[in-house]
Prior knowledge:
By secondary structure, the chain is mostly helical.
Amino acid sequence: MQAEQYDELIELALSDDLLPENPINARNIRVYRLQFAFKAALKQKQYADATKLAFRAGEEVAGDTRQLKLLFENIDLIAPFQSNERIQELSHRRLLSGDWEGSENIYSASLLSCVDDYKGEARGYLRAGEHWLRLYFDARKKNKKNGHHHDRQLTDQDIVEMATTYLNLFGIEDAVKFILSWNPQEVTFRVASLFSKRLVDKAKFALIESALSYCEGNPSFVIAISNELMSVGRHPKKEVLKRSLSLITHSKTKLGQPQPFYEKGSNVEAILSFLEACTIENLSAKKINTALKLYIEKEPTTYSINSDHSDGSRSVFMRSIMIKAATSNEFNLDVNSLLPKSWLKDEEKYNQKQEVERCKEVIGILLP
């Protein structure tokens, strides 16, 4: 503007010239150029140019929102692919945050803890985040006491970012202790699942083994890790599985009734993965079948078996069948013997009989 090169300014703002190669930095600079050029166009009363710039800025801001969403959903991947300076910039600008006030400190701490040079700074953000978290719980308790609804929700990802920060700053033992400090057990399971998934994705299997040594007495944590390991063809050591299997089948230490497997956060499929790992290690067939009865054996409907758009009942049913077959070492299965008794009650009715016959075909095809 001072050089009276208005046309060049507009042309530069609308183009992709002279931008850095890093896509994140390029987007930020593009947005700043558009903002400055838009103000200049308004000042010069060049409304046609201002309209073009506004449309382009809208596209870039929408892209920026999508980019931040992508970064938020993959925070653990930012450090390996961004420079230390970019990580510091993201944390200082506090662009990533949860829903509650002060949560941006948690995400800044998680980012900075990935870089050795910034770990001291990360500790400061972690302390601030923990302070804000205490205030959050105080406010939620106060609102509950007064009968008010607390809109700002603490999420599993918020807790996982804190656990990741503990891992990077203090080690795996402190990270596990932090996760185990949360109640109820459903929260421990969900957070442990997300936390261990990150470790599996990075092939940090030595860390996972260490985590298992610190959480042996908590079957929810072991089940969560087992599920993630089984997704890549691995499973915990026999001793760890054995202890957790004993805990979940004992009347005094068994888990609570799981949520339906089609609900978010359900541990039904994770328990199946855990029992499959126990079967691989030839653990007590009696205890494995007891666990199936306690947590898994809910008779599916004929529709859920026949439909290709079911809620996952078919997968749970078939996996349960194969665990039973493996524990009994009996793989010559008769389809009729596998059918739930409730299906046979109304088999004389034509429609029900047709449904049962279709179920037999589906189960027969899926059996190995």
